[in-house]
Design goal:
3-stranded antiparallel beta sheet; globular; 98 residues; Aminopeptidase
Length: 98
């Protein structure tokens, strides 16, 4: 759960790495619209990335559906780069962790 100003503001869901999918996968990042555009999403990804890098991971992947109102601008702004892969109609992107 993500909190801001002492109240629930959203949540993040991560698919843990498995032998068949060795990279962690950001399944969902959701922030209530009252808490969007405050840098909270960026801080969540920064903290998550640092934790995953500390566990020995080099990349975090995610995907998004193309179109207006989607998360593409946020993820690209955070450094996610499309891999060229399409999964179930969604653009797959990766973030190099440091």
């Amino acid at each position: 759960m993500i909190t801001a100003d002492g109240e629930p503001a959203g949540f993040v869901m991560l698919a843990e790495p498995t032998p068949s999918s060795p990279e962690p996968y950001l399944w969902r990042l959701l922030l209530d619209r009252r808490h969007q555009r405050r840098g909270i999403g960026a801080r969540v990804i920064e903290q998550l990335g640092a934790e995953l890098h500390g566990q020995g991971h080099d990349t975090l992947t995610t995907s998004w559906a193309e179109g207006p109102g989607g998360p593409e601008p946020l993820y690209r702004g955070l450094g996610f780069v499309p891999t060229g892969e399409i999964d179930n109609g969604e653009t797959v992107a990766a973030l190099k962790l440091r």
